[in-house]
Amino acid sequence: MGLIEKISSNSLGCSSILHKDEWGVVKINYSEDYNLYNSKHLYVNQNCGLAITLLKGRAILVTENLDSASCSISTVTMATGSSYYINENLGYTIIMNYGCELFSVESPEEQPLKVEKRMFTKIEIDFLNKAVNKEFNK
Fold first, then answer.
1. Tell me: domain 14-136, CATH 3.40.1190.20, correct?
2. Type and span of the H or E element at 133
3. What percent of the chain is helix, strand and coil (3-state, nearest 5)?
4. Based on CB atoms within 10 Å of each CB, which residue in 14, 33, 111, 116 is the most buried?
């Protein structure tokens, strides 16, 4: 390896800061992929947790406990400057308002990072529409 190594991300709205050894650090800017109407699934990191910090704007963290028999989803309104840790095997997504910026850090126990997606049910989409619209229209 040379003295300079290029780091890049293919995801819309994401800026890779560090993807080295076992660390992934990413700045996430608002993009339409993260708005309410395009959020169709939860991500499940199978081999690492994830820390997310809201830098500016408004965002809602949506989580699901996949170990629970009920598999219920819930929402948390993120506070600027606060960090939220998502355990491995916990489904999550983030719904962002225009202009929002986040910072995330992950360190998988093994490489590569194993991520699955689970689509929302119709009932979950209805729940999210009500919860997010209520929060963002305050």
1. no
2. helix 122-136
3. 15, 45, 40
4. 14
Q: Pairing relation of β-strands 50-56 and 101-106? A: antiparallel
pLDDT tens digits for range 18-72 = 555 666 778 888 988 888 889 888 888 887 788 999 999 999 999 986 555 655 8
Q: Element (H or E) spanning 136, and its range?
A: helix 122-136
Q: Contact, 42 vs 128, CB < 8 A?
A: no
Q: What is the C-alpha to C-alpha distance for residues 137 and 13, in angstroms, rounded to an integer?
A: 23
Q: 13 CB contacts (<8 Å, ≥6 apart)?
A: 28, 29, 30, 31, 33, 34
* DSSP characters over 92-121: EEEEE-TT-EEEEEE--SSSSP-EEEEEPP
Mind listing the pLDDT tens digit for each residue in 104-131? 887 766 666 678 888 998 888 898 999 9
- What residue segments make up the domains of the chain, in order of their start? 14-136
Mean of all residue pLDDT scores within the chain: 80
